[in-house]
């Protein structure tokens, strides 16, 4: 079979486009969507092996550092598990993140339509809003989270909204597509607000800085109108007492001050600060390679028994900060390897943002979406371990590799 993508059969192109749609669309409104998309991408790459392999070989110079970062992360986790006598199941997550490269090679091999991804992100955000609004406003759940916890739901809803914004910029000349993408952008922001999640706002600030840096390259009256509408939605959320955004922000500041002044732990912020104090103690003990998470839990319990930490921290499943979690369980070496899975994709997308400055082609919008994903996870990880769950980890890896594939296609002017 000729490996030239132009000879790819149309049904396969439609199939991969459907998977690119389903990943974001099912991510929040089902409990199985992200896992299902992961398996289908991998199975499709195995069935369509030769064109997928040829696509990876052809673009290896452009993608090698990202793929190697995920490979090194998997190998490090596997080595730590073997050396520490941990269950080998701990390497399932990094392995499946690495295998998400199947999404990249398929998108390039069949030249899947990138609009499918924008439609999926927009439709997923629009579907998530009434789902979470029902829980908040009808069922009176103070911190709703759909099928997952409220923090992860709010973070991913925010990310779907930002991806919808990138889609609106890309499809600015198609009125109906822009309307759907605009609705998705606003719905994602609104759904995140309804969860009461504060961590996502840090990612929004990072995204705003990127948008401000490249605002002059965003063409189209509709796209600019959407940016203005997004600002209006955020302002309305801030000044609407019933949503409690201002109250949550002020509450966070008060809780942080209370912890610093008196060590009050029995608050959301106080618990995190106490956990981070414990994390610093763990890191000092094993700074190079860290220790297993089970060992970390035992040491935290010993700190609590010795009166060095409040026992409240033992009720939480992780350290509520991705960087500290990586340092505690992998030491400096593990932290650097984990950080590479963020830095390498970010560098890939930023380099493409800097290309074709005058043409303002489709690669700009796709690369912008990639930057949103990476910086989104950086922001989420400041107050949460967003990579703790399989869903959060796979969504990141699949979305990074999908957007990389669409970037490579867009560079070749494939729409």
From TrEMBL:
Q: What is this protein called?
A: O-antigen ligase family protein
- For the keyword Transferase, the answer is no
Q: Which InterPro entries match?
A: O-antigen_ligase-rel_domated, WaaL-like
An MF annotation (GO) of this entry: ligase activity
Q: What are the O-antigen ligase-related domain coordinates in residue numbering?
A: 184-339
Where is the protein localized? Answer: Membrane
Transmembrane regions listed in the UniProt entry: 12-43, 63-83, 95-110, 116-134, 146-169, 189-211, 223-240, 324-344, 364-388, 394-410
Specify the domain of life of the species encoding this protein.
Bacteria
Which UniProt keywords are given for this protein, alphabetically ordered? Ligase, Membrane, Transmembrane, Transmembrane helix
Q: Can you name the source organism?
A: Telluria mixta
Membrane topology according to the record: Multi-pass membrane protein
């Amino acid at each position: 079979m000729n490996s030239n993508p132009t000879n790819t059969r149309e049904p396969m192109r439609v199939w991969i486009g459907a998977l690119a749609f389903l990943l974001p669309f099912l991510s929040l409104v089902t409990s199985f969507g992200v896992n299902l998309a992961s398996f289908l991408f991998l199975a499709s790459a195995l069935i369509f092996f030769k064109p997928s392999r040829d696509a990876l070989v052809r673009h290896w110079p452009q993608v090698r550092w990202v793929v190697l970062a995920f490979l090194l992360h998997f190998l490090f986790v596997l080595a730590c598990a073997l050396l520490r006598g941990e269950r080998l199941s701990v390497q399932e997550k990094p392995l499946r993140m690495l295998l998400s490269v199947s999404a990249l090679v398929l998108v390039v091999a069949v030249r899947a339509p990138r609009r499918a991804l924008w439609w999926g992100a927009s439709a997923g955000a629009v579907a998530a809003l009434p789902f979470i609004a029902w829980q908040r406003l009808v069922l009176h759940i103070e911190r709703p989270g759909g099928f997952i916890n409220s923090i992860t739901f709010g973070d991913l809803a925010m990310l779907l909204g930002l991806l919808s914004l990138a889609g609106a910029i890309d499809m600015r000349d198609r009125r109906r597509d822009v309307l759907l993408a605009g609705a998705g952008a606003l719905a994602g922001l609104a759904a995140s607000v309804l969860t009461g999640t504060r961590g996502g706002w840090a990612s929004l600030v990072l995204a705003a800085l990127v948008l401000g840096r490249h605002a002059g390259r965003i063409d189209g009256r509709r796209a600019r109108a959407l940016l203005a509408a997004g600002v209006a939605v955020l302002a309305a959320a801030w000044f609407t007492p019933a949503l409690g955004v201002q109250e949550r922000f002020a509450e966070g500041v008060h809780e942080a001050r209370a912890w610093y002044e008196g060590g009050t732990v029995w608050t959301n912020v106080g618990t995190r600060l106490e956990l981070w104090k414990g994390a610093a103690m763990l890191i000092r003990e094993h700074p190079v390679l860290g220790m297993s998470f089970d060992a970390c839990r035992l040491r935290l319990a010993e700190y609590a028994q010795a009166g060095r930490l409040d026992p409240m921290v033992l009720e939480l499943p992780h350290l509520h900060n991705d960087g500290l979690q990586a340092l505690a369980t992998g030491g400096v070496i593990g932290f650097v390897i984990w950080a590479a899975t963020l830095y390498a994709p970010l560098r890939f997308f930023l380099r493409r943002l800097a290309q074709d400055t005058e043409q303002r082609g489709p690669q700009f919008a796709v690369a912008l979406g990639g930057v949103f994903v990476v910086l989104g996870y950086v922001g989420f990880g400041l107050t949460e371990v967003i990579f703790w769950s399989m869903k959060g980890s796979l969504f990141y890896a699949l979305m990074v590799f999908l957007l990389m594939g669409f970037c490579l296609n867009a560079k070749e002017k494939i729409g």
